[in-house]
Amino acid sequence: MDSRKLSQRQRPKIQERFKEFTNYLNKKYSKDVLSRFVITLGDEFQGLLLSAAPLPDLMWILKRASQIGT
Fold first, then answer.
1. Ramachandran bin of 40, using left for φ above 0, alpha for ψ from -120 to 50, beta for the remaining angles
2. Cα–chain-centroid distance for residue 46?
3. Torsion-angle region of residue 36: left (phi > 0), alpha (psi -120 to 50) or beta?
4. CB distance 70 to 64 below 8 Å
5. Which residues pair with 49 in a beta bridge?
6. What is the pLDDT of residues 9-34, one digit of tens each?
7. What is d(CA 42, CA 65) in angstroms, rounded to the nearest whole number?
8. How far is CA 68 from CA 3, 39, 48, 55, 65, in A?
């Protein structure tokens, strides 16, 4: 998502949804996360996994989430 294109009215709602999404990921992958997923800049986030095992599932979730807004 290009967050710079959001209106001032849209931005807080989308930021809250993004925060809820990272919280969801942290709960879903709590046993696999070494460092929790956090929002870093605008529409970017990062986290650290203990292993690559959950990556296929995580990538599918991220792909689906990115398509919801389009």
1. alpha
2. 8
3. beta
4. no
5. 33
6. 888 888 899 999 999 999 999 999 99
7. 16
8. 15, 19, 25, 20, 5
